[in-house]
Amino acid sequence: MTSPGPQRSILVVTVVHHPQDARIRHREIDALLRAGWRVTYAAPFSGHGLAVPEPEGGLRCVDLPRSAGRRRLRALGHARRTIRELGPRNDVVLIHDPELLLATGRQRNVVWDVHEDTAAAVGAKEWLPRAVQRAAAAVLRSVERWAERRMPLLLAEYAYQERFRRRHPVVPNVVSVPRAMPPPGADRVVYLGSITLERGAEDVVALARTLTDRTAGELQTHVIGPAHGAAEALIAAAHDEGVLQWHGFVPNEEALTMLDGALAGLSLLRDVPNYRHSMPTKVLEYMAHGVPVVTTPLPVARDVVERSGCGVLVPFADPDAAAAAVLALRADPSRAARLGRAGHAAVLRDYDWSSAGEQFVATMATLADPARRAGGATAVR
């Protein structure tokens, strides 16, 4: 990828996401660095137990407090000061959390990367009393409309466009695809990514217990990623009992290598509003590494699995059905290999970041142009 003319600079800010978030750090920031941009990355490094990386190449990192649960005001205050100080020194400020909309002040070069349906996600916030969830969702919809009038948006899903009045560029959650991958094995099932109760933690534990019992421990379930809320104690207890192996947070590149040769990849998300219009990125990661997918029938995941022939659909909240699907794959290695090849071919064709990354950089370059930015929420088409 070549540099887009004069060197651009960008401030990327999150107080919610892990500093090694795959979309932010390993797709978008890496794409900008390859294109010759200078990147300042402000994220909660210490809040996740990480040292702040030393400056390297075009990347400089800044530590911010972590925003979690009811402890958010301190993080917002620090983020506001950082944006006020560093924002004017950069061509673009790219924010990744809806609460950061409150920290942008009068900064004019802000772009919001919309990762999720924020209002729909309110129902999954364990720290928020249910009595105020409906009111909070209405407020968040109003905030989204305000943000659309004030700044350009990037959308992580095409379906998110339905929530907004104007057309906005989409930077889909596609993945980097290895050109070669090993066939599925017979001793490992994987779950990749953060895990919560809504993301199927109880079902993953129940499935792991069944697989351990049915195979005398020969088929192990590996959970690769942090657990949150009530799921943390559940997953930790299952790990201590030997029901599954929980690796906690693993850096992105290392985590992806742990998928190679797995029998199946699990995506047992529950049927909650925030997930109905989104592609679970873990599904694409499994496909990219030639791993058959076992997923609940959320609309986007179901469509991908049915079109590509890359895996098996199982009912919501039915770990017995999910375990049976995994055991059927183990009993038929040729079918597992066929599903893995089909998934790899489909993601290489339709969901490869190598092309989406170029489009993302081009979009950011357009938004960095002061003439384009002057219109506030004018979107790149």
Task: Describe this structure as you would to a colleague.
With 381 residues, this protein is α/β, with parallel strands linked by helices. Helices cover 39% and strands 14% of the residues. It contains 13 helices and 12 strands. The strands form 2 sheets. Strands 3-2-1-4-5-6 form a 6-stranded parallel beta sheet, sandwiched between helices. A 6-stranded parallel beta sheet has the order 9-8-7-10-11-12, with helices on both faces. Helix 1 (22-34) packs across helix 12 (353-367). The longest helix has 18 residues, at 133-150. The radius of gyration is 21 Å and the shape is globular.
Secondary-structure blueprint:
Layout: E1 9-13, H1 22-34, E2 38-43, E3 59-63, H2 73-86, E4 92-95, E5 110-114, H3 118-121, H4 133-150, E6 153-155, E7 188-192, H5 201-214, E8 220-224, H6 230-241, E9 245-248, H7 252-257, E10 264-267, H8 281-288, E11 293-295, H9 299-308, E12 311-313, H10 319-331, H11 333-350, H12 353-367, H13 370-373
Parallel strand pairs: 1-2, 1-4, 2-3, 4-5, 5-6, 7-8, 7-10, 8-9, 10-11, 11-12
Helix pairs in contact: 1-12, 5-10, 8-11
